Amino acid sequence: MASASSAPVAVIDVGSNSIKVLVARRGDGGGLEHVSAHTLDARIGAGISREHPRLSEPGMEAALTAIRELAAESAALGAASPVIVATSAVRDAANGAEFRERVRAATGVTLRILSGDEEAALIGRGLLCDPGLRELRDFILCDLGGGSLECVAFTGRAIRSKVSLPLGCVRLTERFVPDPAAPVAPAALAAVAAHTRASLAASGFDFTSARAGAMVGTGGTISTTRAILARREGHDFDSSSPVITLARIRELMTETAGLPIEGRRALPGLPAARADVFPAALATVVALLEHAGAGAVRHSLCNLRHGLAAETLGLG
């Protein structure tokens, strides 16, 4: 008979580029056990690069539809009231509080708008749930989303420092890519890279652990890169190598930037809804790895949602 502690919990993450749910429970060994995950495309973060961003009515409606759908899915799996959080797009928007009220009216759940510091800490907590990373002690985690980039430094598997920077792929595409449907000019990629390097340098974040070869990456850009490379190598995603070299990322950046959006959408493994922001996202990752002195990044599927699930379940 299942114990009360094994009841699943659901976490819905309202990101700038997509909305995702994780359903998880406490496993027999006391760790986090994955039940189900699903992602829906709903770019609530459109316009995030403006000086005074506001969530658009179509963006909010699409997000609310996605939240209701994912909440119904999780309820069918036995997760009662979901934890619903929002990140960069909502916290930066002038009407973020209005959206929070609309989520409450639609679901009965109060939306938790995470600060950048909270987001970084919870991503770090989620990463520690990854059994494939148990041997890592000192390392750097970087999570690139649509609105922001979070970097977390671990020493002895404890968070030493963290930072959240406005370097998300939706934000930088809007700022530096004049026409995301056209091939992206080298000058635009260079502008994204220069802005990323300057922001990282100004943050003062210490990438020493990454220079020792311990750089871990989460978020849609790294997941998509791994999916594309896995298809090309004839592997399914789960059996593909989680280690992606800087050289491979550079090659993919050059390739995708040279294609119009229809060509990017035709690439196996690249979701159509991500095709417009993918070249700028890769330019950001390349600049990040170069700045960190890391020749590769190790992908993990454990992220913010896992950290929130662990927090909700009271896991260490």
Please explain how this structure is put together.
The protein has twelve helices and eleven strands. Strand 2 and strand 3 form a beta hairpin. Helix 4 crosses helix 12. It folds into two domains: 123 residues, ATPase, nucleotide binding domain (Nucleotidyltransferase, domain 5), CATH 3.30.420; 167 residues, Exopolyphosphatase. Domain 2 (Nucleotidyltransferase, domain 5, 2-Layer Sandwich), CATH 3.30.420.150. The chain has a six-stranded mixed sheet, sandwiched between helices. A five-stranded mixed sheet has the order 3-2-1-4-5, with helices on both faces. It has 316 residues and is an alpha/beta fold.
The main sheet comes to:
6 strands, mixed
The total domain count is 2
- In terms of structural class, how would the helical and strand content be classed? alpha/beta
Mean pLDDT reading: 94
3D shape: globular
Number of strand segments: 11
End-to-end C-alpha gap:
24 Å
CATH architecture of the largest domain: 2-Layer Sandwich
Number of helices: 12
CATH class membership of the largest domain: Alpha Beta
> Strand sequence of the main sheet, in spatial order?
8-7-6-9-11-10
Query: Can you tell me the residue ranges where pLDDT is under 50 for at least 5 consecutive residues?
Result: none
The name of the CATH superfamily of the largest domain reads: Exopolyphosphatase. Domain 2
Helix content: 40-55%
CATH topology of the largest domain: Nucleotidyltransferase, domain 5
List the secondary-structure elements in sequence, H or E.
Answer: EEEHEHHEHEEEHHHEHEHHHEH
Quickly describe the structure.
It contains twelve helices and eleven strands. With 316 residues, it is an alpha/beta fold.
